[in-house]
Specification:
By secondary structure, this protein is mainly α. The protein has a single domain, classed as Alpha/alpha barrel (Glycosyltransferase), CATH 1.50.10.20. The chain has a two-stranded antiparallel ribbon with strand order 1-2. Strands 3-4 form a two-stranded antiparallel ribbon. It is globular. The relative contact order is 0.15.
Length: about 350
């Protein structure tokens, strides 16, 4: 049922030069979308020395805070699937993969933790909500074929395909997803965006995602969540929140709606949002910018070039002395890896974050 698209990794010394072969599929989910092409980086923002230093400090913090079992989580152990999945992607966005280089052993432990959690789960859902299943799916699809041990590939493939099937079965009749992995659980734009981005990543890796799933997602976003008057997406139903607008527009783009007027309207809402870059006023700051950054990449070179320096400078100013972006003792584990992923956007190492 799956067409496997190869990924080739060339390693010269300790430097990873990543080449992703995409001859068999486009990176976006829609079959009629434009052929795969990287953004013209001639005028695109580059990593500054300050951004590189911030990323390095962030990765050092993640290594120092990794749990003995290989996971990253809240201090009380919560959200370990989400934290570990995002933690791995934070290193991958810099070209670091399990088994290779200075972080190879730590990333191997993280990978093994995720695979064990999946293997030990009779249903494959690992006892977590759809948010974490979505992030797990992204991590598996981006890890597939990129680890040092070729024996990993089969386990990663099985975990990825299992997670995708859970997601497909859990789509509501209206086209969205909610917390529980069941089609009768309802839908909200926040969970839907996270889950659909993971399907985009899985399809980029070569896993079949039915056209019907994509069409139902588009119908949900356009007809159930998009507010024409405000130009954004609501959490449940029509309305507007910063985070849901950022997540909704990125999911809509990956579903093949880049040229739609409603998608452009949502992008404009983000660009004109006065609270967008304020940590104080934007309550879901890291979460919303995780999506918004990638939405601008998908939108155009010009939008990306204007957006990235703003969030880059904001994140550098928010980094804590210990290298993290955690703001309290018992904080969510997503803030630091999401910040690194955003700062590392110019690298273009992870396919789902490319255009």
């Amino acid at each position: 049922m799956n067409a496997i698209k190869p990924r080739i990794t060339h390693w010269l010394g300790s430097i990873a030069l990543i080449v992703f072969c995409s001859l068999m599929a486009t990176p976006a989910l829609a079959e009629n979308d434009a052929p795969f092409e990287l953004t013209n980086e001639e005028n695109a923002p580059e990593l500054t020395e300050e951004a590189e230093k911030a990323i390095k400090r962030g990765l050092t913090f993640l290594i120092s805070s990794q749990n003995k079992n290989g996971s990253w989580s809240m201090a009380n152990g919560d959200y370990a699937i989400a934290g570990t999945s995002l933690g791995l992607m934070a290193f991958m966005v810099e070209g670091h993969f399990p088994g290779f280089g200075e972080y190879g052993d730590a990333l191997d432990r993280a990978k093994n933790y995720l695979l064990k959690r999946h293997k030990d789960s009779p249903t494959g859902t690992m006892g977590v909500k759809m948010y974490e299943i979505g992030l797990f799916t992204i991590a598996m699809s981006e890890l597939w074929g990129m680890t040092k041990d070729p024996d990993d590939n089969k386990a990663i493939q099985e975990a990825l395909e299992s997670a995708v099937q859970i997601i497909l079965r859990s789509q509501s009749p209206l086209g969205g997803w909610r917390y529980a992995p069941r089609p009768d659980a309802g839908q909200d734009t926040s969970v839907t965006a996270m889950v659909f981005v993971s399907l985009a990543s899985a399809r980029e890796a070569g896993v079949l995602v039915p056209t019907e799933t994509i069409d139902r997602l588009t119908n949900y976003l356009r007809d159930q969540a998009f507010d024409e008057n405000r130009g954004g997406f609501g959490y449940q139903g029509k309305g507007y929140t910063i985070a849901c607008t950022a997540g909704g527009v990125y999911a809509a783009q990956l579903a093949g709606n880049r040229e739609s007027e409603w998608v452009d309207s949502a992008l404009s809402s983000l660009e004109n949002e006065p609270k967008m870059f304020s940590r104080k006023d934007n309550g879901h700051f890291y979460y919303s910018h995780y999506y918004a950054m990638q939405a601008m990449v998908q939108a155009s070179d010009e939008r990306y070039a204007k957006w990235y320096p703003k969030i880059r400078d904001a994140l550098i100013s928010l980094q804590q002395p210990n290298g993290s972006w955690e703001e309290k003792e018992l904080d969510y584990p997503h803030k630091t890896p999401m910040s690194i992923i955003i700062l590392g956007t110019p690298n273009r190492y992870i396919p789902v974050y490319q255009r």
